[in-house]
Specification:
36% of the residues lie in helices and 19% in strands. The chain is of the alpha/beta class. It has an eight-stranded mixed β-barrel, surrounded by five helices. The chain starts with 7 loop residues before the first strand and ends with a helix.
């Protein structure tokens, strides 16, 4: 086909030629290597690596977060597990279990065993008083539960002030459980400082009531920070969750085995405990009337 193009003359008379594109030296231009081709060559290895990492991650997650707490998953999403071989059961409460229906709790059971005792949070540090303590403490007695009261220890706050604050707010009577010290944190104290302060609290409160206070802490905390033999003479309330058999080999009086318990009269979860003995042992473990008090009562009656 003929072209209609005609060269156009410039003012100088020269012909303005159509530019011609230069061709490469070789017949074909060389394309740069594609990154996809590089990854394609190692795609199998990359996918195998990803799968192995995923499997390892799932295994570690199960080992550290699922397996040790399988009882917790069951308790949250199903029925809580209750250790077998024990039938003296109780709970511990604070203001977190508000609006308790005591008429229902009075007849409640745990694993078909009646609730025998209730331990109630009273104080924390040197100035924090549980808002519901007075009502909970009164209602527990009114509804025929064996009751107790605990102090949450705050490391770094003067132990004498903490002990005196507890004694000022809590007035235990015969038939109540011994006073309880809840120790879970170290704060900025060294191990020796912590042990010294805990012992000071225990000594002050023991002098007041004439009985050794109950020492509440976790299995691991006791091994790490309260493993001195001086603490072995105190009744031990062990907190060790989500296991079907207690691993602690020492003496203990109570075991808090779950924080996901369910009981009639309390909405939501509640801590559940077992007493290491019979109902008669539990009654004998309570604060007893002193001889002089019994003598005074006899004189008044006569």
């Amino acid at each position: 086909m003929a072209s209609n193009y005609r060269p156009r003359r410039t003012r100088g008379g020269s012909i303005n030629k159509k530019p011609v594109s230069s061709s490469p030296k070789s017949g074909k231009s060389r394309r740069p290597k594609s990154k996809n081709s590089v990854f394609g060559r190692y795609a199998v290895y990359i996918w195998v690596g990803i799968i192995l990492v995923a499997v390892a991650y799932i295994g570690l997650f199960y080992y550290f977060f699922v397996s040790p707490y399988s009882f917790r998953w069951k308790a949250i999403y199903g029925e809580p597990e209750y250790p077998e071989g024990y039938n003296v059961r109780g709970i511990d409460i604070s203001h977190y279990q508000n609006n308790i229906k005591w008429e229902k709790l009075r007849n409640a059971s745990l694993n078909n065993d009646p609730v025998r005792f209730i331990i109630i949070k009273a104080t924390e540090g040197s100035n924090l008083f549980d808002d519901d303590f007075n009502d909970n403490f009164f209602q527990a007695k009114e509804n025929d539960f064996i009751r107790g009261a605990y102090h949450f220890f705050v490391p770094g706050v003067d132990a004498t002030l903490q002990a005196n604050f507890y004694l000022h707010q809590v007035h235990l009577v015969p038939g109540d459980l011994p006073p309880v010290l809840d120790i879970e944190k170290t704060g900025n104290l060294t191990k020796l400082q912590l042990q010294k302060d805990v012992k000071k609290w225990l000594d002050i409160v023991e002098k007041k009531y004439g009985v050794k206070p109950i020492l509440y802490t976790s299995y691991k905390f006791k091994k790490d920070y309260l493993n001195d033999s001086v603490f072995n003479k105190y009744p031990y309330w062990i907190a060790h969750y989500y296991i079907n058999k207690l691993e602690y080999k020492g003496d203990w009086v109570m075991w808090q085995h779950t924080d996901c318990g369910k009981v009639d009269g309390i909405k939501g979860f509640v801590d559940c405990n077992i007493f290491n003995g019979t109902v008669q042992d539990l009654e004998a473990f309570t604060i007893q009337e002193k001889e002089e008090e019994l003598q005074e009562e006899e004189i008044e009656e006569s």
